[in-house]
């Protein structure tokens, strides 16, 4: 039997032909894997990190393009995740098209039902993911709650003694009460990356009362503030602000991640909180922190014995309303009327936000009512209880509300309502969970 003909080998590389033969080894040894990874990351024309960051900052208006850049190689993904704040801040020009709501930044919400949380018995908070929009093709990231543990190795979100007290820009503030001792234990965590910071406990006279309001401020909120020598410029920096009532006055206290310490208790000058409410959203603009449902605003963060405050009682008198600051700079005020209609007000895009905060949405020159939204399914599912607005997702332009033991989302761009599956019962506590652009790009390092 004649042997099978073999394919002739390729011609060698010579000066006459000008060709170069590239031979890829069939099997890589352990010593050559590091060299191969180095070649993969430095293939093509070498560009400095500064040049790559400048190009990537131009892609921020289209979040999908920047995600594709992060998926190209490990070096690009490392640049996008580590320099997320720089990339996003360079792109926030007045003419940028990045100031729009991104529906997929809202990942879900945490909630507990009425009757499942008492001073002697708690149920762990449940997380319900939101469905991605029909136009979204990317994989939705969901938080891994089982990996979040405190310093003792115990889970903080699957424990019956924990509750979510604040949420903003990808970070959660969880209170843990495993004992009946007069100690306030708070944890600031990022469920996407798995980071958990156990804050110094507040005990004795430093401990606030049972009811208090909490707000976490991320690097986007702190860019207009100056704190001296503290390091609040990296993507992991944050500040935690507590508001509570003492006998005869309202007090505030602030924790800094840069120093790792609580500041002194400060007396709020100029206003006070009559009825303390927890799990309320905030609005932050150029260093001013507003709690609409508390009818209070802090003009500065508490750092000394007295902090300047301002009352918003005459502006936002409806306790059930929600106030939010959209990415394009417009303020949005939503409230429920007596006939269960959701009325939505917007400010003009070129208006001053601080002046708009001092005007009532009903008669302010900078405000206009967009429309009154009627619940379309009230005929098929009769409303046994009033509609309650729960949470304002600023980055995604969504409002979470409950009606008749169900949860729904209202899209402020399309004015469409979607039903959220997984909630059956009277909701007691609800905290939305969404990412901002910096938190989203920083989380790509964990993918």
Protein architecture, described:
The protein contains eight helices and 25 strands. The chain is of the alpha+beta class and 447 residues long. The chain has two domains: 48-98, no CATH class; 103-446, Neuraminidase. Helix 2 (49-57) packs across helix 5. The chain is globular. The model is unreliable at 13-29, 93-97, 133-140 and 378-384 (pLDDT under 50).
Secondary structure layout:
Blueprint: H1 30-41, H2 49-57, H3 63-70, H4 74-82, H5 84-90, E1 106-113, E2 126-129, E3 162-168, E4 171-176, E5 183-190, E6 195-198, E7 202-203, E8 213-217, H6 219-222, E9 239-246, E10 249-256, E11 261-262, E12 266-269, E13 283-285, E14 288-291, E15 296-298, E16 306-311, E17 322-325, E18 331-336, E19 342-347, H7 353-357, E20 367-373, E21 388-393, E22 398-403, E23 406-411, E24 417-420, E25 427-434, H8 437-442
Parallel strand pairs: 12-16
Antiparallel strand pairs: 1-2, 1-25, 3-4, 4-5, 5-6, 5-7, 8-9, 9-10, 10-11, 10-12, 13-14, 14-15, 15-16, 17-18, 18-19, 19-20, 21-22, 22-23, 23-24
Helix pairs in contact: 2-5
Summarize the entry for a quick read.
This protein is α+β, with helices and mostly antiparallel strands and 447 residues long. It has helices spanning 30-41, 49-57, 63-70, 74-82, 84-90, 219-222, 353-357, 437-442; strands at residues 106-113, 126-129, 162-168, 171-176, 183-190, 195-198, 202-203, 213-217, 239-246, 249-256, 261-262, 266-269, 283-285, 288-291, 296-298, 306-311, 322-325, 331-336, 342-347, 367-373, 388-393, 398-403, 406-411, 417-420, 427-434.
């Amino acid at each position: 039997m004649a042997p099978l003909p073999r394919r002739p080998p390729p011609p060698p590389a010579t000066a006459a032909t000008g060709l170069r033969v590239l031979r890829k080894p069939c099997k890589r040894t352990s010593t050559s894997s590091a060299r191969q990874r180095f070649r993969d990351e430095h293939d093509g024309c070498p560009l400095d990190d500064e040049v790559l960051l400048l190009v990537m900052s131009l892609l921020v208006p289209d979040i999908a393009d920047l995600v594709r850049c992060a998926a190209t190689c490990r070096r690009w993904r490392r640049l996008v995740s580590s320099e997320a704040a720089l990339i996003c801040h360079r792109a926030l020009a007045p003419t940028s098209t990045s100031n729009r709501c991104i529906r997929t930044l809202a990942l879900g919400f945490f909630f507990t039902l009425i009757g499942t949380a008492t001073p002697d018995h708690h149920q762990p908070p449940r997380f319900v993911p939101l469905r991605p929009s029909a136009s979204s093709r990317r994989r939705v990231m969901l938080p891994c709650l089982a990996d979040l543990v405190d310093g003792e190795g115990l889970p903080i979100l699957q424990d019956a003694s924990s509750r979510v007290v604040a949420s903003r820009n990808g970070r959660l503030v969880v209170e843990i009460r495993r004992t009946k001792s007069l100690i306030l234990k708070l944890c600031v965590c990022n469920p996407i990356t798995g980071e958990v910071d156990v804050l110094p406990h507040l005990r004795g006279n430093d401990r606030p009362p049972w009811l208090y309001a909490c707000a976490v401020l991320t690097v986007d909120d702190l860019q207009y503030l100056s704190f001296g020598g503290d390091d609040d410029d990296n993507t992991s920096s944050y500040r935690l602000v507590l508001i509570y009532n003492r006998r005869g006055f309202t007090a505030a206290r602030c924790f800094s991640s840069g120093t790792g310490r609580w500041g002194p208790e400060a007396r709020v000058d100029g206003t006070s909180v009559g009825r303390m409410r927890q799990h309320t959203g905030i609005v932050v603009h150029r260093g001013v922190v507003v709690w609409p449902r508390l009818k209070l605003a802090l003009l500065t963060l508490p750092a000394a014995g007295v902090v300047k405050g301002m009352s918003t009682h005459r502006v936002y008198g409806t306790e059930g309303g929600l106030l939010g600051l959209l990415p394009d700079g417009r303020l949005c005020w939503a409230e429920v009327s007596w006939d269960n209609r959701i009325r939505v007000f917007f400010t003009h895009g070129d208006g001053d936000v601080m002046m708009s905060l001092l005007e009532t949405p009903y008669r302010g020159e900078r405000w206009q009512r967009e429309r009154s939204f009627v619940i379309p399914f009230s005929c098929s599912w009769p409303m046994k209880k009033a509609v309650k607005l729960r949470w304002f997702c600023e980055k995604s332009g969504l409002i979470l509300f409950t009606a008749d033991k169900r949860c729904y989302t209202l899209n402020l761009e399309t004015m469409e309502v979607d039903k959220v599956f997984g909630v059956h019962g009277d909701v007691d506590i609800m905290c939305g969970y969404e990412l901002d652009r910096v938190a989203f790009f920083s989380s790509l390092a964990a993918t």
